[in-house]
Write a structure and sequence with these properties.
- With 143 residues, the protein is mainly α.
- The chain has two domains: 1-86, no CATH class; 90-143.
- It is 75% helix and 0% strand.
- It contains five helices and no strands.
- Helix 2 packs across helix 3 (71-89), helix 3 packs antiparallel against helix 4 (91-112) and helix 4 runs antiparallel to helix 5.
- The longest helix is centred in the N-terminal third of the chain and has 24 residues, at 2-25.
C-alpha cells in the first residue's frame, strides 16, 4: 500500500516540477533551466546521502552492465522533453501523454524482460487497460 501512495506522490511532484521548470525557461533557456534542475537535484541527493546513507559513492560504478549508469543523462532529456511538451501542449495534455508513454514502454520492457527486468507474459486485461487509458486521452482532447 505504501508503494501506491509513493507512486501517487511521484506523479504529483512530476507534474508540479514540469510546470515549475517550464516557467523557469521563460526567464532563461531550456538547457540552462535543465542544467539548474539537474544541479539542484545533485545538491539535494548529496545532502540526503550525507544525512541518511553514507555508503560509498563509488559503489555505483560496480553496476553491470555499465550502460545502466546513463540514467542521469536520460534524466537531462526527460527534463527537456517535459518542459517542451508542457510549453507546447499545456500541463494536462502533456502529462497524460507522458504517463501513457511511460505505461506502454514499461509494459513492453516487462514483456521482453529488457534491461534485466523479470519477463512477464502478455495479459489481455493489461492491454485493455492501456487501450482504455488511450481512449481517455482521446475523450479528454475531444472538442
Amino acid at each position: 500500500m505504501i508503494g501506491f501512495f509513493i507512486a501517487l506522490i511521484s506523479g504529483a511532484l512530476m507534474s508540479i516540477q514540469g510546470v515549475f521548470n517550464t516557467q523557469v525557461t521563460k526567464s532563461s533557456s531550456i538547457w540552462s533551466a535543465s542544467a539548474f534542475v539537474q544541479f539542484t537535484a545533485l545538491i539535494v541527493c548529496l545532502g540526503a546521502w550525507l544525512f541518511t546513507d553514507r555508503s560509498s559513492l563509488t559503489k555505483v560504478f560496480s553496476v553491470e552492465p555499465k550502460y545502466m549508469l546513463l540514467g542521469g543523462a536520460i534524466g537531462a532529456f526527460i527534463t527537456y522533453t517535459v518542459i517542451k511538451s508542457m510549453e507546447l501542449l499545456g500541463p494536462a495534455k502533456a502529462v497524460m501523454l507522458i504517463v501513457i508513454a511511460q505505461l506502454i514502454v514499461a509494459y513492453v520492457i516487462e514483456l521482453f524482460g529488457a534491461f534485466g527486468v523479470e519477463k512477464e507474459p502478455w495479459e489481455w486485461r493489461k492491454g485493455i487497460g492501456m487501450a482504455v487509458a488511450i481512449a481517455g486521452i482521446i475523450i479528454f482532447k475531444w472538442k
